[in-house]
Specification:
alpha+beta, MTH1187/YkoF-like (chains A, B, C, D), Cell wall biogenesis protein (chains A, B, C, D), Thiamine_BP (chains A, B, C, D), UPF0045_domain (chains A, B, C, D), homotetramer, Alpha-Beta Plaits, 3 helices
């Protein structure tokens, strides 16, 4: 099969994605993670990427490599605050048909809900 | 060990939790999932539970059993729209020290960020 | 719309699902979570449901309500070991076309990989 | 605060991590995702990283940047098979105290379970 000859190592990563993540430090005596979340927000701000904080995580948008880099930096900075283990839950989406920002996605659903009440 | 005698089947589920979930229909020709998301919102509204829509999912709060029931109902209703497979990514949190709503969590981080700028 | 009249509260939860979950205690001084994971395995064993442990989580299969009940019980038992907060990352799947066990899913992919080497 | 002067853009990503991920193509007519999973396995094999397939996802281990690169390449190759949208659920862990492979983690829990039966 031609497929066998393909060089899979040269496949590019996606030019755009969104990642919604929730990072948890493990093995720190404190119950509150708000301090760590605040540190992570600073890393995000420094990245120049667009991001939104919500109650169950943070959504960040941009090129795949940059988005994943900043989440990796977030792990590193939380380790620097003393956490020996850091665990992140993430959902990531990519699409090839169009760019759709976080706001546009929310608006699309709200419009559908509004129209179904007619 | 005393532990071995314990009846693990009678352990109660948590009285309160939050669940942040993102449901995806698989094997439907349409790329847009906004219609399915809108159906899910109706199930949530009927549940009487508190919920918030954001761009990467929905956060719902309440007793464990009720929260999980409504997410299960969401799967069922998306199956009824024609999706043969439904996949959900979820993060769930419980705590025993205090109740903290979704809004309070966001505010706590925003306050920390504001104070660190002083 | 007829849709508006529908009673969304009576929709049943799915008769079968799988849930792959990873539970993390937050705010405990210990870095290791192996003790908590072992407690969770005992709750799972008591449930009578089929489950498999892997390095990044546990997969449990059965009716939606029973699967979610046992994961809720897992939260409760980890709280009982002293964790004030417990956070779980979960992915859940349901399908209406056929039942497919965890082993069958792995075998299907392995067969595809083997045949693509011909 | 000294903190304010810090250059957050130069923080390195973690030298090691594991990522457990489950990738789902959205908007393809086919219900089966086994073909896409098989393509993803080829991308993983080409990466040289250590990975394990299980019924609810794939666990890959290595330096943060390389692990995230290969998951991004997985998105790209699934787009190339025709999927307009690709959605991944991921959990990622890093630790600074020791390296622990996927097998070691499973063994640790199995040992604890075995010893609790004494």
């Amino acid at each position: 099969m031609a497929d066998q000859q393909r060089d899979y190592t040269t496949i590019p990563t996606p030019p755009a994605c969104y990642a919604d993540f929730c990072l948890v430090p493990v093995g720190t005596a404190s119950v509150s993670v708000a301090k760590e979340v605040a540190e992570v927000q600073k890393v995000l701000a420094a990245s120049g990427l667009k991001y939104t904080l919500h109650s169950a995580g943070t959504t960040v948008e941009g090129p795949w490599d940059q988005v994943m880099k900043v989440i990796g930096q977030a792990h590193s900075i939380v380790h620097q605050t003393g956490a020996v283990r850091v665990q992140t839950s993430m959902r990531v989406g990519t699409r090839t048909d169009k760019k759709q920002t976080a706001e546009e996605k929310v608006k699309r659903v709200q419009d559908l809900l509004a129209s179904s009440l007619d």
